[in-house]
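User: Okay, second chain of the day. Same drill as before: sequence in, structure tokens out.
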Amino acid sequence: SRRKFQALAISQLKEKTRKILCVSYEDGFSDVEELKD
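Assistant: Same drill. Structure tokens below.
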């Protein structure tokens, strides 16, 4: 499913970049943005 894929992608992105990510949920889907200092 798209939801499962996005969750996996977010997890992998966190692992690879080790950067702080902001995950916002709306209607079951998520958007990811890198937080700027």
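The chain has a mean pLDDT of 60.

User: Thanks, on to the next one.
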